[in-house]
Amino acid sequence: MKPSPVTRLEARAFKIPTDGPESDGTIAWGATTLVVVEIDALGVV
Questions:
Q1: Cα–Cα distance measured from residue 13 to residue 24, given in angstroms and rounded to the nearest whole number
Q2: Which bin fits 24, alpha (ψ -120 to 50), beta or left (φ > 0)?
Q3: pTM of the predicted protein model
Q4: Interatomic CA distance for residues 22 and 28, integer angstroms
Q5: Which is the most buried residue in 13, 22, 26, 27, by most CB within 10 A?
Q6: Where are the domains of the chain?
Q7: Per-position pLDDT tens, the chain of length 45
């Protein structure tokens, strides 16, 4: 089995408030979540 070329994996989550309450008809929320993932493999990010 070959070793993985991935040398770094980083994930961050950010909670971003909305301008006002939002709803889809079943639930309401006041923020959304943004997830950023960086992967370094073979020197490319």
A1: 23
A2: alpha
A3: 0.64
A4: 5
A5: 22
A6: 6-41
A7: 777 799 999 999 999 999 999 999 999 999 999 999 999 998 899
